Amino acid sequence: MQATKFGGALAGVAAAGATAISLIAAAPAHSSQKVNAISAGALAVVPRAAAPSKAPHPVAQVPLPGKGITNALKGGRAWTPTAADALKLASAQVGVTEDSLGGGTKFQKWFVSSPWAERGVKRDGGKVSDYANANWCDMFVSWIGAQLGVKGMGADAFTRTHAQWFKDQGRWGQNATPGAVVFFSWSGSKSIDSIDHVGMVMKDNHNGTIQTIEGNTDNAVKIRTRDVSSVVGYGYPEYSSDNA
Q1: What is the CATH number of the domain that holds 157?
Q2: What is the pLDDT at residue 242?
Q3: Considering only CA atoms, which of 165, 123, 122 is closest in space to residue 145?
Q4: DSSP one-letter string for 134-180
Q5: 143 bridge partner residues
Q6: What is the pLDDT of residues 42-62, one digit of tens each?
Q7: Which of these, 214, 40, 63, 45, lies nearest to 148 by C-alpha position?
Q8: Residue 78: band (very low, low, confident or very high) from pLDDT cuts 50, 70, 90
Q9: Who has the most CB within 10 Å: 27, 117, 140, 161?
Q10: Residue 104 belongs to a domain
Q11: Where does the Peptidase C51 domain start and stop, copy by copy (predicted)?
Q12: How buried is 124 (Cβ within 10 angstroms: 0-12 exposed, 13-18 middle, 19+ buried)?
């Protein structure tokens, strides 16, 4: 299937044949059935996007500040987010699901209302409202960073350009550290242009698998165990190392 930025390559696509061991379900994780509908022309009015540019994207490293971070999450300390903070907030979203149209999540609603959506439309075509029911695994990751004000997280709805952004910032590598943003290709390719899906690393199991938390996996936020053979690479946000 030829992917478009609102189709197979948009955040959340998990094609058949993915190597995955699920902590939630035995079958490989598949994203929403809306992927097939979109690729079949449900969003045919959206112009086909050009291939992602290899040049650095002019994106600020500090996402939009979040709102409503609870005192319980802050733990009464000065607010400098750590990887543990990001994973705690992400874990609190487990069980959030999309509606029957493939939308309705807080992550999609946030993205549609943010400047990131306008930037995506200028870059890729279409209209802001298209994001309301689009695949949302990268919106989930971006939402986590924005809510906590994590530096160096970036924000996007398109996994490939988000991965390229990390690489352009010099924050890209092959080590599965907690809180890292992990990009997958179900074909096993190590090319950024082949990326299908994104999540966050919870831990390296040191047995050829990693534990992750992901949005838009079986239409929900879930914890997964993934084989590292499907990992293209990792983006590293600028977390604080202060866990006091």
Answers
A1: 3.90.1720.10
A2: 66
A3: 165
A4: S--HHHHHHHHHHHHT-BT----SBHHHHHHHHHHTT-EES---TT-
A5: none
A6: 222 333 333 333 333 223 333
A7: 63
A8: low
A9: 140
A10: yes
A11: 132-216
A12: buried
